[in-house]
Design goal:
heterodimer; A: about 290 residues; MetI-like fold; about 0% strand; B: about 350 residues; alpha+beta; Rossmann fold; OB fold (Dihydrolipoamide Acetyltransferase, E2P); 6-stranded mixed sheet; 9 helices; 20 strands
Chain lengths: ~290, ~350
């Protein structure tokens, strides 16, 4: 802060600081406070707002706790998001390792470009592409049928479709932190481990993964948060049996017309996500500031 | 008796670059063998081929009589000590040392006791639970050696492991490595670009230049009887005088030079009528001109080094000359700026073909 004032002078620095504070207050703090406020108040007709019935309570949260279907979708969203993070890790780790330790510079450049280009397109459109690929009369079924792997077209929408769409959407968020972490590993350590007789599996488990731990934790936390808060993939690629908690929140706001209950649901999701993230980081002994980097 | 290592016409080509060509030598079991050469001479490539990180594109490598073709580094009876040491920074010292045993499925108690035993061997008892980052350079060095010895290798491969240490520590570690090698009886193959290191530690040395093996021999032999001009100039300091051999008789070559006629021992391939160079060590040059041959030079400066002083001079043909004078003889040293005559014995000079 003192550095800022020294470099830009009092006037300009005060404007910078004021802008940042306004952003934090208006765009981050205020909506969250409003969400908490909404979540704790009952849904009342306009005439009764501010009246004797408008008191703070945990009724909206308790509604979720007592509603078996919503509760199970909530927990399913949590563990399914964890599974998405794990599956994305499984897909990205070998790729990240290859890019960081084996690929030539031009191979790395081409691979990273190929991975980045799809991200120039909007997430909704990318998910729509999967919607087309996975359609009942779509290209994936046509391919599998022509190869004789399946006799009947499969219905891919549902858990499988949501998983595929999410892994695809979050690859870069997992890949880059792990790639950065593995890239800083000295090749001689891998060679030393091999020279001492370690199997490929042991080299990764004992040498590469511990070194890349911060990157892996960062990637998993990113992916988990994005998956838990994802709306597009479950809405487009899901089926009635694979409902995501965000869809229920959406329904309270836009179909149920109960913003208070929707806000309470969103608050519970936020709190649980935070808990999962902090516990993960604690277990991996990674600081939140490392993740931010 | 630990295993011997034989290289038979080994070559390595990377794309269009021939890193190593036609190298053959035998390292005997229990020997301290160095491969000496400037950086880029192919010595690390040879070490990595013996370790199994590279498969030679030509020739054969056998260890203990067994052909190593197609075997990876984890299937060979070798262990390598890397230039950077490559200790695992996130494992405590004892787990580092026992990593090879862990890979072989040893129990934790077994690993710990072996690690403690090795820590004793390298005089770091009680350091097992520290992290590598908490150790000094010399201590890390010893841990790397212990880690390699833990798998009981037949051959230990060392890739310039002392290069990161300061001079005092390096000299100390030389003696320690040498003692450890004698105690364990393991075959050591040691890579270095530092000729004094190689001379001080090795039983035998292979000198490499530009991917080609120049000479294999005991330190004294390389120093006294270099077989090629490269060995003569790379191993130790030397003075060079160019000329033409007029006669070779009974192993003594007579050389006609611009500075007069001189005689020296004829190296391999020297024949009368050939363009040759005569090499004479600084310590063989005696001020005052005593000896079978003489060289006249203008003395430019005298650098006092402690045990000896180096007299730098210029010969009549303009080339540089250096003579080493023992500190105890400095009273009779030539004056700076003046002309002085240095003598040397025929048996102290070597004549090699020019090239």
């Amino acid at each position: 802060m003192a550095e800022l004032y020294r470099r830009f002078g009092g006037g300009l620095s005060t404007i910078f600081v004021a802008l940042v504070l306004m952003w934090l207050a208006g765009m981050v703090l205020a909506p969250n406070i409003m969400m908490v406020d909404y979540a704790l108040r009952p849904n009342l007709p306009p005439a009764q707002i501010g009246g004797p019935n408008d008191v703070y309570s945990l009724d909206n949260v308790m509604y979720l706790a007592n509603e078996a279907v919503h509760r199970s979708i909530f927990f399913k969203t949590i563990w399914a998001s964890a599974f998405v993070a794990f599956a994305t890790f499984v897909v990205c780790y070998p790729l990240a390792y290859w890019l960081a330790q084996h690929a030539t510079p031009s191979q790395t450049a081409i691979a990273l470009l190929a991975l980045t280009i799809p991200f120039w397109i909007n997430e909704v459109l990318r998910t729509l592409a999967w919607y087309i690929i996975l359609a009942f009369r779509g290209p994936l079924n046509a391919l599998l049928l022509s190869l004789g792997i399946i006799d009947e077209p499969m219905r891919w929408y549902g858990n499988g479709g949501v998983l595929a769409g999410m892994i695809y959407a979050y690859i870069l968020f997992m890949l880059f932190p792990i790639y950065n972490a593995i890239e800083s590993l000295e090749k001689a350590q891998i060679e030393a481990a091999r020279d001492l007789g370690a199997s490929t599996w042991r080299i990764h488990w004992r040498v590469v993964m511990p070194h890349a731990k911060a990157g892996i934790a960062t990637g998993c936390v990113f992916t988990f948060m994005l998956a838990a808060g994802s709306y597009v993939a479950p809405a487009l690629l899901g089926a009635p049996g694979s409902r995501w908690f965000t869809e229920i929140i959406y329904n309270w706001f836009f179909e149920g017309g109960d913003w208070n209950r929707g806000a309470a649901y969103a608050l519970v999701l936020l709190v649980l996500c935070l808990v999962v993230v902090l516990v993960t980081l604690k277990l991996a002994r990674v600081n939140l500031t490392d993740v931010a980097k | 008796m630990s295993h011997s290592v034989e290289l038979h016409k080994v070559g390595m080509t990377f794309g269009a670059t021939r890193a190593v060509g036609d190298v053959s030598f035998n390292v005997e079991g229990g020997e301290f063998f160095s491969i000496l050469g400037p950086s880029g001479c192919g010595k690390t490539t040879i070490l990595r081929m013996i370790a199994g990180f590279l498969q030679p594109t030509e020739g054969r490598i056998t260890i203990g009589g067994k052909d190593m073709a197609g075997l990876g580094p984890n299937q060979r009876p070798t262990a390598m000590i890397f230039q950077s040491l490559a200790l695992f920074p996130l494992m405590p010292v004892w787990e580092n040392i026992a990593f090879g045993l862990e890979a072989r499925g040893a129990s934790k108690a077994e690993r710990r006791s072996k690690a403690d035993e090795l820590l004793k061997l390298i005089a770091l008892e009680g350091y097992g639970d520290r992290m590598p980052g908490e150790l000094s350079g010399g201590q890390r060095q010893r841990v790397a050696i212990a880690r390699a010895l833990a798998v009981e290798p037949q051959v230990l491969l060392l890739d310039e492991p002392l290069s990161a240490l300061d001079l005092k520590l390096r000299q100390h570690m030389r003696a320690e490595l040498r003692a450890l090698q004698k105690r364990t009886g393991v075959t050591f193959i040691y890579i270095t670009h530092d000729q004094s290191e190689a001379l001080a530690m090795s039983d035998r040395i292979a000198v490499m230049s530009a991917g080609v093996l120049q000479q294999v021999g005991a330190p004294r032999e390389l120093y006294d009887n270099p077989a090629t001009p490269f060995v003569a100039t790379f191993v130790g300091e030397t003075n060079v005088v160019a000329g033409k051999a007029t006669a070779v008789e009974a192993g003594i070559a007579t050389v006609e030079t611009g500075l007069g006629t001189m005689r020296g021992r004829a190296g391999p391939g020297v024949a009368a009528g050939q363009a040759v160079r005569l090499y004479v060590r600084p310590e063989a040059l005696v001020p005052g001109g005593k000896g079978d041959n003489t060289l006249s030079a203008t003395v430019e400066r005298i650098d006092f080094e402690g045990a000896f002083a180096l007299a730098h001079g210029r010969l009549a043909d303009g080339s540089a000359m250096v003579a080493s004078i023992s500190s105890t003889d400095l009273g009779g040293a030539p004056a700076i700026g003046g002309s002085a005559t240095f003598g040397f014995d025929t048996r102290h000079a070597v004549v090699l073909p020019d090239g």
